[in-house]
Each structure stands twice: as C-alpha cells, then as structure tokens.
Write a structure and sequence with these properties.
The protein is about 20% helix and about 20% strand. It has about 500 residues and is α/β, with parallel strands linked by helices.
Length: about 500
C-alpha cells in the first residue's frame, strides 16, 4: 500500500455474528504429491469455476499439496496455504480451478513512508490538561464538519468500517465508538475477532479511524457519534496482502457495514494487470469481494495514492512487487489500482489548507469523485496549518515525528491521500445517519453537494512542475472543467451541504 501510507508501504474461529452460510472455515491436511521442492509456506488465492462447489475446490487444493485456510463461497474464492514449489502449477491444471495466485503473504522489507518521516519540523507538543485540539483541525473546518454537527453528528445505528492496520482500542477518543463485536483481524485471510488480533501495530489505522469517528475528547472526527468497526487488513509493516483484503470486504458485507474506508492499495502489486495470470487472479478475487460488499449495501471509499500519477493514463509501474525488489514495467488501462479503480468505489484525492491538490496526490478522470484534506507540507504550510499536515489519533506506543500529547492521549500529524479518504468516509456516515443508505444514492449525494473546484491556473500549475509522476516522470496535468475534473472530481467534499 505504499501509495497511500504516506508515500508509503489467523487464525481463530470466526465470530458468531456471521450471516448463516456466508463464510466457511475448513481444515484439511496437505496431501503429498511425489518428491518436490518445498520451502516456507505461502498463502494463495484460488478462484474456482462457476458451477464448482467449495468442496470441489477444497478437494483439488488438497490434491495439489495444499491446505484450505478459508472459503468465501459467495464469491467462488478460497484461501489456501502450501509449502510446495509446484502447488500453483498443479492446482491451475485442476478441472474446477479458474485462477491461482501466490499472495506473497510475507515481506522481505518494510514499507517506507517518505511523506511522514522525520524532518526539520519534527516536534512533540504537550497540550494543557483538558485542552481540546479542535482548533488545530484545519481539515475539519475546511469541509464544514463542525457546522454539520449542528444537524447531525451521526447515529450509533450506522456502522463505519476502517479497513486499515487496526486501531488502538484503548485510545480515549476511539474507545467509546468502537464496535468490538464487529471488529476483526483479517491478517492471513481468515477472520479473528480477538481484540489483541486487531489492535494497531503500525499507527496508520488509528490515525484514519480518528478522522472518521474520534469522540471529541482531544480531536473531533467527521462523524463522532457513529459506530466504528475496525477491520485489520494491513500488517505491522504496512502491507495489505490480497487474502486480507478479500477477507475484509467479505466481513464488511456479511456484517452489514454501512461504509468502509480504504486508505491503501492492495499489495504486492501497485497496478494489477489482467493479462498476467497471477495478477488476474488477485484482481478477480478482490473485485468480487468488493462487489459483494457493495451488493450488501456497503459504500466503499478509497484513497487514490501518493505517486502524483494520472491513473486514467498509466504507462509505467516502478513499485511492484513492493514486498521484495520492485521492477520497472509497462502498464496500460488494462491494469488497475485496487480498490480505488473498482467501479462504484468513491475515489478521493488530497488537498491542503489552500484548497489546492496536494503535491503528491494521484488523480484521474473517471477515478476521482471528490477531494478532501490530506495535507501538503511543501506547497501549503499556512498559518492555519503550520506544518501542512492532518492531526488525528495515534497510539502512544508507536513513534510519531510530529506528536501532540493531550490529557495523556497521543495524536499525530500525517499527510497523504490516506488522510483524505477518511474525511469522505465520515461524510458518508453522516449521510447514512439521515437514512440515505443505497451506495449509488450516497455516492451521488457526496458528489452533488461538493464545492466545485476548477483546474489550476497556469501559474498555479507551475508549482507542480517540481513534482512529476514518481512512476513515469510525466508532468502533472489537470483535465476537465469546474464541474468535474481529474484533480478534484466534483469538488471539495462538504459535510454541511451533504446533511442539509
């Protein structure tokens, strides 16, 4: 998820709240298939053919030398595990199997976060006891969140999900709103509801969760009175592997979440290309799980990423596979960033306190729906936003270069499209609190109530000449008019207008 973690990047019984017949856990031993090279066990996503049953797929997984980890029978996908070097080849030739992909469920490196690493402005500030930090939340003022709260601050009946690295459920600004019964870890591809499993061991998820639904003790979330469902799909190093992403959306759909925030791209491929058999399997499985969630009424909001890429005109990918050594490769529109480029997803770009696109933010016609505050420490450090970044909740046990401590709780300044997306998720939660719950109607309301923003003038565009695309070196260009364009979509999300 390197594009959205700044600049970047189990398993017990399932909870009893699952819808009947929705998910199925099988435990099958691997069956030897002659002498073959073995190594560390690896997870695989297996897409099986229409007409085949989960048991058919399970039998063929076992016959190929693997064990079934979890079955998502509603979408024809299973997660398998094997230490055999020939497992994928054996399984791909099986009669009921459509596609197989090794998901590289372990990484040989830790994702970097170039947007938020230590710099000259690294600080730790301690606020007076009992002090509110709302005055530091330029982002909430920019989208009129505080004014929206005079109409609604959200309903506890609305369940907003944060698919991220987990959350610090002990944080005083998050604990009152977390729905423990509907929170889960999906690391490894199967659900684990133990709170210790979905506790944040990265920090990113706690930050995005606070933007959605912080209770207002230190900072205020966009929707401070909704229920927050924590879905951990990102590991301690910041990787969101496909089996965890599939599990996350299946959980959200089966547990009737209203909306999910997705501040990441699914690893290990930045672009998943359908002409590659491994990436096609990943794309199919993830797309099916997202579609399933939407069909259950879940609105899906996603960050666009931080490489200054025009996602509507991709040509190069130099980030993939990001869990080992990336290689440079040519890509086309047959390749997609997931989840943001799945049809029906609300794509979000980032802007700063001057209401200009953040220097790092991806964009693209047909991808961008709206823009929201993600921060910009280079072009948009202002009196209102002295370091240009967004303040939100953070675990006290994780390092933060720009920390604020208030009432014994920790908060952190970060920037990225990861920070923009949860603002829109919060607005969606407010809209759903009014009883508007159809994902299509919700998306239309988000766009129709946004504050239109035109493409930059030539003078403004010149500021971006120093920040070409990280992947292909192209200069950043905005396409479209004031009603809709590639940088801002329908405009700046407006919480007040959305609920008025």
């Amino acid at each position: 998820m390197r594009g959205s973690l700044g600049s970047r990047r189990s398993l017990a019984r399932i909870g009893t709240g699952l819808a009947a017949g929705s998910l199925m856990l099988l435990s099958l031993p691997a069956t030897p298939v002659g002498a073959v090279t073995t190594g560390p066990a690896q997870n695989y996503l297996v897409v099986y053919k229409a007409g085949a049953s989960t048991q058919d797929a399970a039998s063929q997984v076992q016959g190929a030398g693997g064990a079934l980890v979890y079955a998502y029978q509603q979408i024809g996908v299973v997660v398998a595990r094997s230490n055999r070097s020939d497992f994928a080849a054996n399984l791909q030739s099986a009669s009921n199997i459509e596609d197989v992909a090794g998901t590289a469920g372990a990484a040989s490196q830790v994702k970097d976060d170039q947007l938020n690493t230590s710099g000259a402005d690294a600080t730790t500030t301690t606020a007076p006891k009992g002090a509110s930090l709302a005055g530091l939340q330029w982002d909430m003022r920019q989208i009129h969140a505080f004014e929206a709260h005079s109409i609604t601050s959200g309903s506890k009946a609305v369940l907003a999900g944060d698919i991220d690295t987990g959350a610090d459920y002990t944080h005083p600004d998050l604990n009152p709103n977390i729905d423990f019964a509907n929170s889960v870890s999906c690391i490894g591809g199967s659900p684990n509801t133990a709170p210790s499993a979905w506790k944040d061991d990265n920090g990113h998820g706690t930050h995005t969760a606070g933007t959605i639904a912080a209770a207002g003790i230190g900072v205020v979330g966009v929707a401070p009175n909704v229920s927050l469902g924590v879905i951990k799909a990102g590991d301690a190093a910041g990787f969101f592997f496909p089996e965890a992403v599939v599990c996350a959306f299946m959980w959200a759909g089966s547990h009737h979440f209203n909306v999910t925030n997705n501040s990441y791209f699914a690893d290990p491929f930045y672009f998943n290309c359908r002409n590659d058999p491994v990436q096609r399997a990943i794309w199919k499985a993830e797309a099916r799980s997202i579609k399933f969630a939407m069909q259950q009424g879940v609105s899906v909001v996603a960050a666009e990423g931080n490489f200054a890429d025009d996602l509507a005109h991709p040509t190069m990918d130099q980030q993939s596979p990001d869990n080992t050594t990336p290689v440079s490769r040519t890509v086309t529109n047959a390749c997609a960033v997931i989840p943001v480029e799945i049809p029906g997803v609300i794509g979000v770009t980032a802007d700063g306190s001057l209401k200009m696109k953040s220097f790092y933010s991806n964009y693209g016609v047909g991808v961008t729906q709206v823009v929201a505050p993600g921060g910009d420490s280079v072009l948009q450090s202002t009196q209102a936003a002295p370091n240009g970044r967004v303040l939100s909740t953070y675990p006290s046990y994780k390092a933060c270069s720009r920390k604020v401590v208030a009432g014994g709780a920790t908060y952190c300044y970060l920037q990225g499209t990861s920070m923009a997306s949860p603002h829109v998720t919060g607005v969606v939660a407010l809209i759903e609190s009014l009883g508007i719950t159809n994902p299509g109607a919700v998306q239309a309301r988000v766009g129709n109530t946004a504050d239109a923003m035109p493409c930059p003038t030539a003078a403004e565009l010149a500021n971006y000449s120093f920040f070409p695309s990280v992947n292909n070196g192209a200069s950043q260009q905005c396409q479209g008019g004031p009603g809709y364009n590639s940088w801002y979509g329908h405009g700046q999300v407006n919480a007040l207008a959305a609920v008025s």
